[in-house]
Amino acid sequence: METLQRTMAAEVSELSVPVPWGEIRGRVWGPDHGRPVLCLHGWADNCGSFSTLIPLLPRDCRYVAVDLAGHGRSSHRPPGVFYSILEYVADVCRVANALQLKKFSIMGHSMGADIAGMFTVLYPEMVDALIFLDAYGLLPVDVDISKVMRKEMEKMLQFDKNMDRKERVYTYEKAVERLLAANPMLSLQSVHILLERGLAQVEGAGFVFSRDLRVNFKNAFGLSLEQCLETQMRIQASVLVVLAEDGFHKIFSEPSLKKFTSAFLQSLQHRNHTVVTVPGDHHVHLNNPELVAPLVSDFLRTKVLSQSAKHEHKL
């Protein structure tokens, strides 16, 4: 297993996809001819989120992990433009087109799963399998949607007036402390992995966080519980949901969200999709990849690689 991990690690290359405002960056693991798996990280993370998991997964796949716009080493969106699920879905289209991906699987963690779910509903012919890591694909807004949208819109417009604000500069040690304080679920090793792409060096001064502050605003685009369920029901791809015992469902415990997650998981199981719970927290795929890798590997082998082999045999 260690030899395989080292081999996969040696096969990593940097990705750069030109977009109208700059570039979307990322990392690619695996052979050129491998079955493509697009990997989408969660809010405020970067593609390093998959660095410990991917080396444990089947080597017949080609894993394309991107830094979402405004995260990691990817360009920030232009001034006056903000971040929502639909813009990220358009970015997935840009990456898929640039890499000439006609059919692929998507693995998404947290917000990355929201993007994956919406993309799959809009482009069902392009996605053969979906993996949600401690996520449900889309979450409803559990309060008055118009109030949420207005509040977030006002925050965005206020942000526009302070574009000249200075970014805070940190020593590397202070940056580690800040990320650990903001996300105590991360192991120290995971913090170092995320900071590899999550910091930008300021010459002679230290480091700034590379993330665009505008990603902190909530998505000013909300769906009701009913709309979320109806949207999720349209997913045609095979689905694997890996939940963490101390993860997402404990962070978001509002009754309306529990109602949605219960209904969504029931619907998946009724349609013979797979829902599994593992010990760990919201970043278990990064902190303890050995708990998640066997489940993802089995799913990829049975739902993607074996189907691909059958198709090639018929040809």
What does this structure look like?
By secondary structure, this protein is of the alpha/beta class. The protein has eleven helices and ten strands. The chain has an eight-stranded mixed beta sheet, with helices on both faces. Strands 7-8 form a two-stranded antiparallel sheet. Helix 3 (111-122) links the parallel strand 5 and strand 6 (127-133).
Could you tell me the mean pLDDT? Answer: 89
The coarse overall form would be globular
Strand content: 15-25%
Q: Share of helix among residues?
A: 40-55%
Counted by DSSP, the helix tally is: 11
Strand order of the largest sheet: 1-2-4-3-5-6-9-10
- The helix/strand class is alpha/beta
Order of helices and strands: HEEEEHEHEHHHEEHEHHEHH
Query: What is the β-strand count?
Result: 10
Q: Low-confidence parts lasting 5 or more residues at pLDDT below 50?
A: none
Strand and helix map with partners:
Elements: H1 2-10, E1 13-19, E2 22-29, E3 35-40, E4 61-66, H2 85-98, E5 104-109, H3 111-122, E6 127-133, H4 145-160, H5 172-182, H6 188-198, E7 199-202, E8 206-209, H7 225-233, E9 238-246, H8 248-251, H9 255-270, E10 274-281, H10 284-287, H11 289-314
Parallel strand pairs: 3-4, 3-5, 5-6, 6-9, 9-10
Antiparallel strand pairs: 1-2, 2-4, 7-8
Short description:
By secondary structure, the protein is an alpha/beta fold. 42% of the residues lie in helices and 21% in strands. α3 links the parallel β5 and β6 (127-133).
